[in-house]
Structures are given as structure tokens and as C-alpha cells.
Known about the structure:
With 142 residues, this protein is mainly beta. Helix content is 15%, strand content 41%. Strand 1 (30-37) and strand 2 (40-42) form a beta hairpin.
Amino acid sequence: MSRVRKWAIVALGALVGGCTPEAPLPRAPGSVTITMDEFRFVAPDSFPAGRVVLRTRNAGELKHDLVVIEIAEELPPLGEQLQSETRHATPTLAVLPTQKAGEEAAFALDLEPGRYGMVCFVPDDEGVPHALRGMHAEFTVD
Length: 142
């Protein structure tokens, strides 16, 4: 047996031997589909905790974006906040760039249990953000 082949077998044995059958594999991430349309998000009200893959599709005719925010439990509903003069700081977790009609995208987030929101800030022809036209949604993570 050649010297190189012997080293390859030894290296392979060390690599395989280093894997412990007792170590559990991480669970596969959950997947959530979010459809963007004129002036709404179609998505589940609840997402699984942990890593989740968000798959988006712009089913509308206008451009849309998706901003995922964390919402503190004590804050009023997202729609009420968007219409209010009072602004509450909320952490932004992800920003999906503007998608044209028909475009699709996917990205992953690690989510802890809590309250979250989706908002589209693309302005319409009059300069009004789609969020103020109703393109926002809340969801919880269990």
C-alpha cells in the first residue's frame, strides 16, 4: 500500500472516529412563507422558536420590502403604533431589500419566544409608506 494511501486511510479514520454517535444533530430550521401583496402580508400568526427560514414572494404589482422588528409585550398593537404620534423604539432584526413584482427571496432568522412585526416602508406614488396603507402584520414566536 502506498504511503499516501496509508495516510489518507489514517486521516479518514481519525475524522470518522472524531464523530460521536451520542451527539444529537441540530433540528432542521422551520420554514415560513410570507406573501407580499398590495398592502398586506399573508403569513402565519405564529412562528416556531429557534432558527426559521422566511421565504418571501411579491405577489403584487408594486415593489415591496420587508422589515422584521421585535415588539415589546407592553406596547400597543403595531397598526395602532404606526398611526400614533407617539413613537416607540423597536429593534430591527432583518431588512429584506425591495422586491419587484414576482420576485422571491429567502433568509434565516434566529427567533426567541416573543412578539414581532413585519412592515413595508416602500412609499407609494404619493410618498405614503405602504405600512400606513395597512401593509404590516404582527406574529408571535412560541
